[in-house]
Design brief:
heterodimer, A: about 375 residues, 6-stranded parallel beta sheet, 14 helices, B: about 160 residues, mainly alpha, 2 domains, two-stranded antiparallel sheet
Chain lengths: ~375, ~160
Amino acid sequence: MNIHQILAGFADGDAISHEALQLREILRRWGCGSDIYCDPATVSPSLRDECRPLTAYSSKTGDICLHHYGINSLSTDFFLLSAAKKIIIYHNITPAEYFGGFDDALAARLLAGRSRLRDICRCVDAVWTVSHFNAAELKSLGVDNVQVFPLLFSPRMLDITPEPLIVAKFTDALKNILFVGRIVPNKRVEDVIKAFAWFNKTINPYSRLLIVGSNRSAPRYYAMLRMLAGDLDLPNVCFEGFASPAGLAAYYRVADAYVCPSVHEGYCLPLLEAMHCDVPVIAREAGGMPEAMDGAGVMYAGLDEVELAELINRVLSDSELAGKIIASQRERMQKLKARQTEEELKTLLAAWLPSFATRSGEREGGQ
Amino acid sequence: MKITVAGQDCTEKLGGEIRQKAAALKKLTGRAAPPEVSAEIGALVLHKASSDADYLDHFVRLLRYRDAFDTYDFDIPRRPGPFGTVLAGIKRVLWKLLRYQQDRIAFRQNMINGLFTNAIEFEMAERKKTDAELGQRLDKAEALLSKLTAEKMAK
């Protein structure tokens, strides 16, 4: 039996791509034929050997096709034409208004993605989402029977030797405040820069803000952020760009706190990465982030930049508070480690894979 | 304001302390606080851009205000203790020694930056002129085409 996946893009450092790779690993372990299909134009060079072109995709009745949906693309059309049982995994679509003025073409694609969302969900066999936040969004559109399969997190990627040059560069007396994520408008990176301006100028001049993530998704927004750092006279704001896995591990290694001021996230994997590396996490209570945090770390809402600067200061200077945060994050990581991913997946697929249903039934009966 | 730590609502206690300290920080002015840039020309005005073209117009306008760097003195942070005092003193002396060269380099660099900004503005103005001319010619061509089509239909 084949359970293939179709993606709109396949790139290093992308949460959806990582999930697809993990799912493929599980499915192949079960003995299924499983490949990842993607438009070659949207595949990063390092991952070309890991996927096949969309045009090579073929299906037959009895197969299953998983489509990771987060933007309107050619891949969705291929998916909809598939003869296999169709399952859509909704990763959330960033509201187009965030990109207005920064990238009109991308805003149009996001808008098209949202406008097709309900119709697509209605002509597939199952709808999965990576968070309850995403599920609620679909339910508000009138999509029923949405099942939640939380985004997969594999700490393996971070359990490697951190890039020594980065560790050496940023290991000094300065406090490192870290942001990791694509540099796009919904992440509200300007909020952490403004907060850092207050932190650096009024609280601790021996501090540095590390902004790590691809700056190619919204270059105009990135230009605005650099201009803002200049306006605020902040030479200690370091725009580091995209990081390799070893680079990412190094940034988490040197970080004293991780701050995520994003206002729209389907889930937000970097929060889990930071927690795994024992970096205290401060995140805005928005979108799917409370689910990713699951009661760990620090969540905030309604803080201005000065208050956020003071909150960062408290987390960095109050060891008792930091200890409490780290303990809660470790607990969260333990919960994630205990997650029965394969069982969850089998339950979700049981309707189409009778062998799994039988095994689940036997197990339930045995208990 | 809402702050949750390890799943517990700390808005009242921790939030209250933070609000109080933040209020004190907000009273700081001058070099003790982050520089203030007028909202009209601040980088975040780019959020108001309604389209890619509008963004470019805003961006070049903002660039005009930022194509030169100033040569004012800047604040040298000082670590606590005698070692910090000595180090800050050395840094201040070094800055005074280098100041003259820095001013000369700044003058040249600012001149180059200014000329680049001019070049971008000239290029934009020229492109707008060409676009307008092409638009007019296209309008005329479309008008002529519809007139000819109507005549052909009448025959």
